[in-house]
Amino acid sequence: MTDEIKKKLEDKIIGLVKEYVGKKRFKPVDIVKEMEKEFADEGLSKDDIKGVLKEIMNDEKLVYGYAGGSFLTLPGKD
Fold first, then answer.
1. What is the pLDDT of residues 26-48, one digit of tens each?
2. Domain span at residue 41?
3. Maximum Cα–Cα distance for the chain, whole Å?
4. Which phi and psi (to 5°) does residue 20 adopt?
5. Is the separation of the CB atoms in 70 and 47 below 8 Å?
6. Domain tally for the chain?
7. CA gap 12, 15 in Å, rounded
8. pLDDT at residue number 77
């Protein structure tokens, strides 16, 4: 995976969560499935997407929230 594709994937994941804050809650598996569809033509594997998602979480660009189940959200948001 190139740095360009990695950055595009990261922006897309964060943008997706940001767009639906307060409307829909995404579990990590939901995000992986969405990105698999979105980047099917880029040849990204599930492990590639999970790796980028893990980096996003480690950098605290997205964090876990809990409301009847775990989900991903922006820091300071529910």
1. 999 999 999 999 998 888 899 99
2. 3-73
3. 37
4. -105, 10
5. no
6. 1
7. 5
8. 65
- Evaluate whether residue 16 is within a structural domain: yes
Residue 30 lies in a domain: yes
- Report the Cα 11 to chain-centroid distance in Å: 9
Residue at 57 is within a domain: yes
Cβ 57 vs Cβ 63: under 8 Å = yes
What is the DSSP code string of 25-71? -B-HHHHHHHHHHHTGGGT--HHHHHHHHHHHHHTTSSEEEESSSEE
pTM of whole model > 0.85? Answer: yes
| CATH of residue 32 | 1.10.10
| Contact call for residues 23 and 63 (beta carbons, < 8 A) | no
Q: What CA–CA distances, in Å, run from 52 to 14, 21, 62, 67?
A: 11, 20, 12, 25
Q: Are 67 and 25 in contact (CB under 8 A)?
A: yes
In a domain, 78, yes or no: no
